[in-house]
Write a structure and sequence with these properties.
With 550 residues, the protein is α+β, with helices and mostly antiparallel strands. The protein has ten helices and 31 strands. The protein has an eight-stranded antiparallel beta barrel with strand order 5-6-7-8-9-10-13-14. A hairpin with a 6-residue loop joins strand 11 (185-186) and strand 12. The relative contact order is 0.13.
Length: 550
Amino acid sequence: MSLINQLLCRCFIVMLTGCALGCIGVSGGGKKGADSDVDASMSLPDGSVGDAASADSSLVSDAGNDVLAADAPATTDAVTEPPTPPCPAYGAGAVSLQMQGGASAELAYTGDVTVQATHLEPDGCLTGMTLGWARAEGCGLTLSFIPGEGGIWGLESAIMAPGDGCGSGGVASGLAVLSGVPDTTASSPPPTRCTVLSGAITVYGSLSFEAGDGVPLSATLDGLQLDGMLLSNAVESGICGVSYTPCVGQSCGDDALLGTSCGACPDGSICENGQCQEVEEIVAVCKRVLDDRADLSEGEWLGNAATCDSGVMSADWQARALKLTNLYRWLAGQPPLELATQGNVAMQDCAVMMHAAGSLSHNPGENWPCYTEDGKKAAGGSNLAPVPAVEAIDLYMADPGNDTTIGHRRWILSDWISKTAFGSTSDSSCMRVAGGFGGPNPWIAWPPPGFYPMEMHHIAYKTVDQTGWTIQTNDVSLQDAVAEVKENGQVKPIEAMTLLPNYGSKGAIKITPAGWKIQAGSTYEVHVTTASSVIEYSFVAVDCGALMNQ
């Protein structure tokens, strides 16, 4: 085997679970093939699964690249900017303060947050933001941020005023990230510009203060938040912008100004020009599948595994990974997952560890390159893959190399999760699959009932026919279950086996077509008999691309 193939023949996907870690490699001749399973051990989740990715320890710093600098106006047309006044917003959160000698304090901030934003006219770029939290007991906290790569802003300065619980306060340095600030958006009609802060903005990180009384302080920011708001034409007018009401005249799609969702259409309808229109269900399914899979690109990773710079995963990159994940869950009848952005830094630590090591593990040791405790915790609660995050979703769903578990697929469709977080490099990725409760269905099947798009079938070097169909459940015992499959009313030969438990569900069964494969346009009936119940459903395989091009 060549050196390149030896390097490539490493675990391709590692799943979160307790027994088998499936691997995929590259065999001789450059063709991909499955390696054997590897034994491992890890505690299994239950209804109170721990949130491994939501660590509150120190975070990586922002990349420091002012991506808006190129938008600055030409010096020959410089605009004199009047000072932008502070604008109020509502905020809450906590800061855990640790003092030298072991004393500690928990500072809770509630109420108004002062937002001071710096605009760059005439392009309307938001180039800086200062946030100020106040407390009746003092210890007012002021944090200033500058924009960085991927919509994640890094700390520029931090000051804590004297008060009860923080002594004389001080000036801080450290690692903090402002998450949730979007790009500047043009309002209508031009030339008015506005900077949209829609939804909650979250601050998290760790700081070290030079206290005025000489007593060192260290602080952990535990998800400080402020509600979204709109700063409109603030530089030109010198006043804070008025509130903006999104989605006026729209019942679906994205708001033209904010880009935020105005709602989703019910099954059997599609969104056209901001309004839901009824169509055949197969058309609605195919339109969403093609729309949600239209952009499966990976973002640009600017980190460096050689120096253990984990970089950032841009907001739009995360959004594409989440959209694809939720497309699978929607087709399977499961509710969508939410994105837990407070876990991003730990997930990036996880991804860069896997990248640097050229291997995958849920329990990496301290001798791993780029080891961090946060990265280890994230790895323990994640699906892992040595490919970037968007590509990994399809691979998890095909799940080759994990014949006895099909665990990645079961985790993505699982009832045991309601949130996820992603970390990715150009080579490896981590997807959090621990925490929450994600659905009430008695069983979940893939291929799912209803319409099964062939675009979701040929998604890896092995199809779902080759790796096996699955039915997973937390309510029905599948021990000694008997399965039958019909294609257009004719019984087809299959191989069925019970999968190992607790990989995203208490139980599961795998059904593998024996010598045949799913054909577009055909109807398939699945009938599974257990000791206590019967599971039965049907689906129609559809080529959405061909259908929508008719």
